[in-house]
Amino acid sequence: MDFSLSEEHIELQKWAHEFAEKEIRPVAADYDASEEYPWPVLAKAAQAGLYSLDLYLQAQADPTGLTLPIVMEEVFWGCAGIGLCIFGTGLPLSALAAAGTQEQLMRWGPAMFGTPEQPKVAAFCVTEPQAGSDVRALRTRAVRDGDHWVLNGTKVFITNGGVADTYVVVATVDPELGHRGQASFIVTRDDGGITPGKKEHKLGIRASDTSEVILNDCRIPLDRVLGGMERLEDKLERARRGESTGRSSAALRTFEITRPSVAIQAVGIARAALEFATDYAKERKAFGVPIAQHQSIANHLADMATEIEASRLLVYRAAWLAASGQPFPKAEGSMSKLKASETAVAVTEKAVQILGGYGYIRDFPVEKWYRDAKIYTIFEGTSEIQRKVIAQALTA
Ligand SMILES: Cc1cc2nc3c(=O)[nH]c(=O)nc-3n(C[C@H](O)[C@H](O)[C@H](O)COP(=O)(O)OP(=O)(O)OC[C@H]3O[C@@H](n4cnc5c(N)ncnc54)[C@H](O)[C@@H]3O)c2cc1C
Question: 103 an active-site residue?
């Protein structure tokens, strides 16, 4: 066992950190205030190779699994809202990689990112007004009509929903089969019948677009179902016969693989808050001494640092389990998401406390990190759902 990062990983970390420091931090507060999509930052990220399919391919080839966690921690240290614009396409890309054929991956992977000159983004559409944690309750329907699928339904809270060109949409093909009757489809803006609805105004991660996506008689060719028609028909047939399709264990594994990537985003926010609060505590004086010398403030800093280190180690281990193709017997991916998200909320709250009144006003970035952190206990599976998954793994 060796905890040191390789030369390549250190280089990667420096590269991502420099981008975050130079291109993201200086504009983070402005995008937070305006709630505009940071296209100029995304364009720079695309030109630098930070927003690219290549980065994901490079990450895939890293046997340690650390490429993405290392890069993402730095980017989210810069700003989580902007970070989600740079890494939001990773979510539909993961869905495509998990369920699509090699041919579909080659065709739609590059389309999701566009080109460095004209970057595009993609969205993953699962959640509906009545179906968030309970994805079995999805009502969006995909009905076959000759050589086409026709999709109808409303998705809510979709990251990049209002700005994407390519969408991966989860819809029900056979409602009688519950979640086993669902499939994922590739839809593009050019197909027509897919339109962004209401853009949400949020507590935090305000640079990130979160919108409704409305499917109204959206007609797409049959080959847009991920995995292809033959695999879908085979899966539905087996479900109708009551046989196992292996789908739920494959879906659970996919979540275990993707959750560490979300967890490290929370680590990035928490580290930003710890660094700022530490510097502040060394400078700010109360009762004649820097507040860092008051034991209760020192204890806060110690707890914050310890929790962040523990979270990062859980992420690194889960990423390594994923990269080396090992099982997740205790839902270690979910553990990393649970721990890191709750750490980010606790650490940013303590950072506000350390800054006192200055933590609460917008002149300092700490209140933004506090707002940004909260989403991590909600999206990509709430904390309650992570605990449920971990407990189920333990008692299986
Ligand atoms: C900013 C943002 C971005 C998002 N991006 C996307 C996206 O890109 N794509 C997408 O598809 N979705 C996205 N979502 C949706 C997100 O994943 C859901 O909001 C989340 O899964 C929770 O679903 P819900 O809001 O319907 O809450 P509910 O499922 O209604 O949950 C409400 C409460 O009940 C608890 N609860 C529910 N079921 C259980 C249970 N079985 N046991 C214990 N507690 C339970 C929950 O933990 C929560 O505390 C996004 C949401 C937000 C806010």
Answer: no
